[in-house]
Specification:
Number of strands of chain A: 0
Structural class of chain A: mainly alpha
Radius of gyration of chain A: 17 Å
Shape of chain A: globular
Strand content of chain B: under 5%
Radius of gyration of chain B: 18 Å
Largest sheet of chain B: 2 strands, antiparallel
Helix content of chain B: 55-70%
Distance between the termini of chain A: 9 Å
Largest sheet of chain A: none
Order of helices and strands of chain A: HHHHHHHHH
Strand order of the largest sheet of chain B: 1-2
Helix content of chain A: over 70%
Largest interface: A-B, 43 and 41 residues
Oligomer: heterodimer
Distance between the termini of chain B: 24 Å
Strand content of chain A: under 5%
Chain lengths: ~200, ~200
């Protein structure tokens, strides 16, 4: 199937389920494991990731297709993307700080973490590799962010329960058991495969 | 973590085992999971990371006195990105298939937390030579985790090693080993083994 003809909604759905950026592409693992100890911060970080990826994906699309390609500067894509993301995060942080204290307290503290979150950069790289159109890239950004938030919320919920009720082998505590749980969640997500297909 | 007194080869050595960035600090595991289903790709990825780490630690350390503190993060990221672009161009020129298979993961070395962790945590405060050794150490420490995992996943999942068929064709392939979840399980098991070994050593 030609990727250009795929409806953006299908891309959005696939990015959440079959092509979940965390569970199948392993992106954004570092903050995923570090933050998922606490459900509330997980939701905050998840919301911040959805927000940033939804906006940076189309911006990066514009930068790549309207700026880098016409001037044959494709090899600069990494630098361009990372600068776009860093600048976007910085601006948003300043705006949020001015506009709403409440929003700043819930989202603001997570924003610096996002600049180096590989999920956001991965999003930008995937939309170039998979040759999405502009609308598709918005859908993909939104879907990838949502998928990531869903995964971290699931893991945080499970970890919070486990802390109270179950005993873990000391050597496997913390990151080890979090990886095992994530593996099981990833297996559950394989159940989605075949519903929608984007490469 | 105390970064002050560690100099020279001690900086390299501690990264291999005591402070291994993947096992100890759980950093940089995005790529640790994604590329380890083929030994060849893993090797290329490891070499790329060692190169990036060594060179960006060196550069950051050289510039450590002229980088303003407020913008140090973005400068570090730009230095790292420059070396990653270099790797990408070299790979495209000499190993196009592997570059294609690794896809976004070469670019994602930029956001590999190990690199930022070392430049921020060590190179910003230490001399260039020590920083190079520290970077190389962290890179090798990373490879020491990735390569064994890849060496288990590829033969079991595809029956091959380094692209060469090593297990007879009538072997039932464990498809499980090449898809995503096994990456999580393999890394978790590896961390478990290493930690058990470490804590066992401490008790004795």
């Amino acid at each position: 199937m030609d990727i250009q003809n795929v409806h953006p909604f299908i891309i959005f759905f696939a990015a959440i389920t079959t092509n979940n950026i965390l569970l199948t592409n392993f992106l954004g693992m570092c903050s995923f494991l570090a933050v998922s100890k606490d459900l509330k911060s997980s939701l905050g970080l998840g919301a911040a990731v959805i927000f940033v990826s939804t906006f940076t994906a189309p911006i990066n699309w514009l930068v790549y297709h309207k700026l880098l390609v016409p001037y044959e500067l494709e090899y600069l894509q990494y630098i361009a993307f990372i600068v776009v993301i860093a600048a976007f995060v910085q601006i948003i942080e300043m705006v949020i700080e001015r506009v709403s204290t409440l929003l700043y307290l819930t989202l603001g503290i997570f924003l610096p973490l996002i600049t180096v979150n590989c999920a956001i950069l991965g999003c930008a790289l995937f939309l170039v590799i998979r040759q999405y159109s502009f609308t598709q890239s918005i859908a993909y950004g939104l879907g990838a962010g949502t998928g990531w938030a869903l995964a971290i919320a699931a893991l945080a919920g499970i970890r919070a329960r486990m802390e109270k009720k179950s005993k873990v082998i000391p050597e496997l505590e913390g990151a080890g058991i979090a990886l095992v749980i994530t593996g099981i969640i990833a297996m559950a997500f394989i159940g989605f495969s075949g519903i929608v297909r984007i490469n | 973590m105390n970064n002050g007194p560690v100099k020279g080869f001690a900086a390299l050595k501690r990264m291999l085992w005591e402070e291994n960035p993947v096992i100890g600090q759980i950093l940089g595991i995005c790529s640790a999971l994604a590329v380890t289903n083929l030994v060849k790709n893993t090797l290329v990825m490891c070499l790329g990371l060692i190169f990036t780490l060594a060179m960006s630690c060196f550069t950051v350390s050289l510039m450590r006195n002229v980088i303003p503190r407020r913008v140090r993060m973005i400068i570090q990221v730009l230095i790292i990105a420059a070396y990653v672009i270099f790797i990408k161009i070299v790979l495209d020129a000499f190993l196009p298939e592997i570059s294609n298979e690794l896809g976004p993961y070469v670019g994602l070395i930029i956001t590999n937390c190990i690199v930022m962790g070392r430049t921020e945590g060590y190179a910003m405060a230490n001399k260039p030579v020590d920083s190079i050794l520290d970077g190389i150490g962290a890179g090798i420490g990373y490879s020491l985790v990735l390569l064994p995992i890849a060496m288990i996943r590829e033969p079991l999942g595809l029956g091959s090693f380094f692209g060469i068929q090593v297990i007879p064709a009538d072997w039932t392939k464990w498809n499980m080993m090449v898809i995503a979840p096994s990456g999580f399980f393999a890394l978790a098991t590896y961390i478990w083994i290493v930690r058990a070994f470490k804590s066992g050593g401490e008790k004795r």
